[in-house]
Amino acid sequence: MRLRIYKRKVLALLLALGAAAACALTLWGSGGGGRPEGGEAFTPHSPSFPGTRGLLLPPPLPHLFPHNASAFPPPPPSKPPREEEDEDEDGLSLLSGPNATLRLRSLIYRLNFDQPLRNAHKWRPLTADHGNDAADTGAPWVALVVQVHSRPEHLSLLLGSLRQAKGVERVLLVLSHDVWSPELNALASAVDFCAVLQIFFPFSLQLYPEEFPGPDPRDCPRDLGRAAALQRGCLNARFPDSFGHYREAAFAQAKHHWWWKLHFAWERLRALRGLPEPGLLLFLEEDHFLAPDALHVLRRLWDMRQRECPECQVLSLGSYAAVRADDADFAAKARAAELKTWKSTEHNMGLAFPRETYRQLAACSEAFCAYDDYNWDWTLQHLTVGCLPRFWKVLLPQVPRVFHTGGDCGMHHSKKKDKAAADKASAACHPAAQIRKVEALLAAHRDSLFPEAMALSKRFPLAPLSPHVKNGGWGDIRDHELCKSYQRLQ
């Protein structure tokens, strides 16, 4: 009797399993699960994959999966996005909601991989009319690489100055962001005067808000002593900087971004791949402003380098020297250039150099990434005496063609003051007022711009120059290792 009861239970169980299997097969064949109609499998970047909208997942990373690019695991299907997200044309939905950080990381990896180039028809680096005029035989192609943080007013003013720069239609503009922002993206989308490409620093604080390289809550507070840090057991207790302080992610980011951008621009940008020499990258920041003849003067400086100083590794279009509108010698100075030892505190604006100089910098990756200074430019100063084959010599115009509009609103200013004072200073910062002074200066001497030729008027004594102080802020071994990895990242 008991055996007959067990047989009935087993039979009922088998019938139930058979019914479930039949149901599953029916759903599979009708497109109800696993595959869409037509039998095409879902793939991570398929337009039909729920919630991806073609951009949300990163490509396979060769440095993680060198032998099998398909090893990048696809995430499980998500619920279809809400209708209002589909209609969110400016991308605000990416900055909020569940998994916003992960979705933003994926978008940025995809954009860096795809490198969509706007106004691509304007980028003609190999055509005969690339130079300013027929006399520019052998003129270099030029790409402008701008480091952008989170100040749309400054970026708008920089782009306005570029629009007025003669010859800008023949350059490539690369905007390198460490903040994904609809407002900044809108400014980039409005550029119609040259080819423009946006790239995104993939290890920013925005993408890693609660873990390294962002501020990890398990990290040591800046001013915690080493003994107390070791007792507490915070993550970086064994790695304070030269002054006993622990890392501040916001200040470490600028050096990371600069070094990543350097390698990405020279090694990864497909728009520059395979271009013959000579070529120049001109490095700018969002709070810079260009004179109308800045690109013209850059090419004149390049010509001068070929004649007067082939050993000069860098050119600089900016300086912090005061220029007065009532200077009676302005016209003569506007067509004059100077030869100096490169100094980070004077010649870090509008820095331009060819691939040869980049290769020398890349060979010093270990020294750059281990030097305990959170400033990229002071670190370069250290390399000129501590690693590079020779100290840097720089050619620059006596009248700068790149001006600084940041005033006291930048990173160094806020680091020196407490938060309340820094907030007050930032509120009082008006870049438009700085621009009006520069525009008045240039308007007063409009006839002195665009010199047909430039002469080397001054040769200053040339000797190696070491940084007079090390600023610290870069003692964490994690910063060193991440920094060194940028050359290897694909």
Distinctive features:
disordered N terminus, Spore Coat Polysaccharide Biosynthesis Protein SpsA, Chain A, 16 helices, ten-stranded mixed sheet, alpha/beta
Q: What Rg is obtained from the alpha carbons, in whole angstroms?
A: 28 Å
- What is the straight-line distance between the termini? 71 Å
Within CATH, the superfamily of the domain at 117-353 and 390-465 carries the name Spore Coat Polysaccharide Biosynthesis Protein SpsA, Chain A
Helix content: 25-40%
Largest sheet: 10 strands, mixed
* CATH architectural designation of the domain at 117-353 and 390-465: Alpha-Beta Complex
How many individual helices?
16
The CATH topology name of the domain at 117-353 and 390-465 reads Spore Coat Polysaccharide Biosynthesis Protein SpsA, Chain A
Give the strand order, joined by hyphens, for the main sheet. 1-4-3-2-5-9-7-10-8-12
Mean pLDDT: 81
CATH class of the domain at 117-353 and 390-465: Alpha Beta
The run of helices and strands is HHHEEHEHEHHEEHEHEEHHHEEHHHEH
Helical/strand content category? alpha/beta
List low-pLDDT spans: 1-7, 20-89, 128-136
Give me the count of strands.
Answer: 12
How much of the polypeptide forms β-strand, as a percent range?
5-15%
